[in-house]
Design a protein that fits this description.
Length: 189
């Protein structure tokens, strides 16, 4: 299946989720993250979901990470296809950007080479670990700057697409794991 077809399909599926289901699923995802062997690492990058798009609410995940004394890093769009990463602190102030993504206003920048684990937003993924995002390329560009060992974990309300994503580009970065309400998928490990 082509990415643009999957974007349309999964945006519609997310729009049909109730707010209660989206909230419950977000908590389940955070709990399922406990199954993944990532707890010896130090710097964890995560997105903040776009509430208007019914994206995964990562606040339960952030609470889990902070409870385990992990450093949480939040992205901020800084230019064409690029992001800066800011350490989340008690003093971090957020402002929504033009896409309604909450971003840190300022703070301590964490370089890509320090990031051990990345939680990725996505619309869909297949059984080979290919992901479909919104198509802007921000995360693929960012992941190419991270160490090869950085663990990439998708967060999805839905199971893997059984049909292979056919228009995978050579710059697309494959997931290592994808966490859903019903299962943790493992790829490349």
């Amino acid at each position: 299946m082509l990415k643009h077809e999957l974007r349309k399909k999964y945006k519609q599926m997310r729009a049909e989720l109730s707010d209660v289901s989206a909230s419950d699923f977000s908590i389940l995802l955070a709990n399922h993250v406990l199954q993944i062997p990532i707890w010896d690492f130090f710097y964890f990058h995560t997105f903040l979901g776009i509430e208007e798009n019914k994206e995964v609410d990562t606040l339960p995940l952030i609470t889990l990470l902070q409870g385990k004394d992990k450093n949480v890093v939040i992205p901020k769009v800084s230019g064409e296809n690029s992001m800066e990463n800011y350490l989340l602190t008690d003093n971090t102030v957020f402002r929504k950007n033009k896409w309604h993504i909450p971003e840190p206003v300022d703070g301590i920048i964490v370089p890509e080479d320090k990031i051990d684990v990345v939680f990725l937003p996505l619309l869909a993924f297949d059984e080979h670990g290919h992901r479909v995002g919104y198509g802007k390329g921000y995360y693929d560009t960012f992941l190419h700057k991270c160490p090869k060992e950085t663990i990439k974990i998708g967060l999805s309300f839905f199971k893997a697409e059984e049909t292979l994503i056919t228009d995978v580009h050579e710059n697309d970065v494959t997931l290592d794991y994808c966490v859903t309400p019903g299962k943790v998928y493992t790829f490349n490990r």
